[in-house]
Write a structure and sequence with these properties.
The chain has 447 residues and is mainly alpha-helical. It has a domain of 308 residues. It is 68% helix and 0% strand. Helix 10 packs parallel to helix 12, helix 12 packs antiparallel against helix 17 and helix 17 packs antiparallel against helix 18. It is globular, with a radius of gyration of 31 Å.
């Protein structure tokens, strides 16, 4: 239904309309396949949905040369980067002249710079490649090592099941309308959200340095990735200690600083106009991102609406930051929820925003919960070397070992042979007593 609504509500000759009409047919076919399947969330309907709602619209739009405006912005940013040393236009006037993204986003436009107007050199294709690579990396991290890789029984069969479940989950993620739409029309958000999923996967596995590098890569693409840095640092500090948190923070901020600083040094004014004023709706040119959310309505109805929205965004950032200090998240699911909350507040309160930005909170809420079902999201607790195996199976036996007051109250489980050996003397004693009793009765009768 969502794809059909987008197709009917979008203006003619737009990529959104094409995606909506084609995607609605793809989702309808997937629904028919799912209705005939006895397994919920099976792989076959996911493949049909991805094919009909993402692959077919992407190929069709690539052939006819129709894409979202962001594709041209990124491709021009790559040209400016190689010609002037900065991906930002120093004197932007029209909406197409602005580049509201951070310098790393221009890398997706390099293939177009090298190979020209060929379908596979389009920045849209490389947005897709970046997203798929990040999600595939997240699945690999979660299916390599730990419970997810070996399964509950620690067997290779468990590893195969974990990889299969991870692949199916990735397919359903791609089939989600808020993901399939930007992948098809050339949105810049999928590679960012894919990198955030990969960073959360490394966080779940306890790889602080790798999580920091990945979230740092996301942070050089778009501002929306920056709130993930303190959230991931907070959960690593709680689960891995200060050193793990420091490794993550140092890796992410160093990478972001080394990438963003040169663009600022070349032309600080161009950077400020494109990356700060224009996205916040504070410049002379109105942003094309104007969805009727709370921030947009405040600017529209109040005399000092822009100042009010800026203050509200700052207050929400302070509130989320304070929650990280007072009640840090204890798992990657909780961390993703906290990040989704912060981004949701920023999206709702920003004067220049799009409803399509909902891809961030939706994916951040859904994907970590799916991966948590595949792998226990808790730090591993090693057992003492001398601890008997039966102590590892029951809580009561562990309590008896841990507390002197209760030590010895619960005896360890014995094998059937041991129980028979313990009971045999009692049975023999009763049998001997019974024979003596019978003999005594016979003697009395004889007397």
């Amino acid at each position: 239904m969502s794809a059909l609504v987008v197709g009917l509500a979008s203006p003619d000759h737009t990529s959104q309309k094409v995606w909506g009409l084609v995607g609605a047919a793809g989702y309808a076919c997937a629904a028919l396949v799912a209705a005939r399947s006895s397994t919920p969330w099976a792989r076959t309907p996911a493949v049909v949905a991805v094919t009909g709602a993402a692959a077919v619209p992407l190929l069709y739009l690539s052939v006819i040369g129709r894409a979202q405006m962001e594709v041209g912005v990124v491709e021009r940013a790559a040209e400016l980067l190689f010609s002037t040393g900065t991906p930002y236009n120093p004197a932007p006037h029209a909406v197409r002249d602005f580049n509201p993204y951070l310098p790393g986003m221009a890398l997706f436009g390099i293939p177009h710079l090298l190979f020209g107007d060929t379908p596979f050199a389009s920045a849209r294709v490389w947005f897709l490649v970046g997203f798929l690579a990040a999600v595939a990396g997240a699945v690999r991290v979660l299916t390599r090592g730990g419970a997810l890789a070996t399964g509950p029984s620690g067997t290779a069969h468990g590893a195969t099941r974990g990889a299969t479940a991870g692949l199916t989950g990735a397919l359903w993620l791609i089939a989600c309308p808020v993901v399939a739409l930007p992948l098809s029309i050339g949105g810049v958000d999928p590679p960012v959200i894919g990198l955030l999923c990969l960073a959360l996967a490394f966080t779940q596995r306890g790889h602080a340095g790798r999580a920091g590098l990945v979230v740092g890569v996301a942070a050089i693409l778009k501002w929306t990735a920056w709130p993930a840095i303190p959230v991931i640092v907070a959960v690593l500090a709680l689960r891995g200690g200060r050193r793990a948190a420091f490794r993550c923070a140092a890796a992410s901020t160093s990478l972001a600083g080394l990438t963003i600083t040169p663009a600022m040094l070349v032309d600080i004014s161009a950077f400020y106009q494109n990356v700060v004023l224009y996205p916040l709706g504070l410049g002379p040119t109105a942003s094309s991102a104007q969805s009727p959310l709370l921030g947009y309505l405040i600017v529209l109805l109040l005399p000092h609406g822009k100042a009010v929205t800026t203050a509200l965004i700052a207050l929400s950032a302070v509130g989320v930051g304070a929650s990280l200090l007072l009640r840090p998240p204890r798992s990657t699911v909780a961390a993703a929820d906290r990040l989704a909350l912060g981004l949701l507040l920023a999206i709702a309160l920003s004067p220049a925003t799009r409803i399509g930005y909902a891809v961030y909170p939706i994916v951040l809420i859904a994907w970590p919960r799916f991966t948590a079902r595949l792998s226990a999201d808790r730090p591993a607790t090693p057992h003492p070397a001398g601890e008997p195996p039966y102590h590892r199976r029951t809580v009561a036996s562990r309590l008896c070992t841990a507390t002197p007051a209760t030590a010895g109250l619960l005896s360890p489980p014995r094998s059937p042979a041991g129980r028979d050996a313990r009971r045999r003397p009692h049975r023999e004693h009763h049998e001997t007593g019974a024979r003596h009793s019978v003999g005594a009765d016979d003697s009395r009768r004889a007397g």
